[in-house]
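Q: Hi! First time asking for a complex rather than a single chain. Here are the components, and I think there are three in total. Is that enough to go on?
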Amino acid sequence: MLVCKPRALITYNPVMSDKHSMDGDLDQRIWLTVCAIPAGKLSTYGDVAERAGLPGAARRVGAALRKLPEDSNVPWYRVVNASGKSSLPPGTHGADRQRAHLAAEGILLGAGGAAVLRRYRW
DNA sequence: GCAATGACTATAA
DNA sequence: GTTATAGCCATTG
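A: Yes, that's all I need. Here is the structure of the assembled complex.
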């Protein structure tokens, strides 16, 4: 059974209409990988990258998540850095929303953005 | 083709 | 614990 409905994914797809451009392909793969993280658990950029077939490309995962539209059902907020903290600049809109989303799933972030729950191991 | 960029990471001090 | 540094990968100009 599958993951979240990638409605927002399809909505975004920058240039999928044309033939040779598969630029959204990588992002999409990353997004789908993120969708596989169960609710209430966390994962890291590095792990997501590896599982998406891009070992070592943690930064690329960050870029993909940044492109993600707000109305997406992709649980981007379940992705944190290797330190178990949020990588979003504190005080920003994104960081706020991440805290809210995680709180809704029972994950509370400390003042510095440190998650209480242990990270999810694939 | 090269240099700069970034929601990263591992290591060392 | 934290900070500093040097790799890392794919995109972008």
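A: Residues 23-35 of chain A form the longest helix (13 residues). Let me know if you'd like any chain examined more closely.
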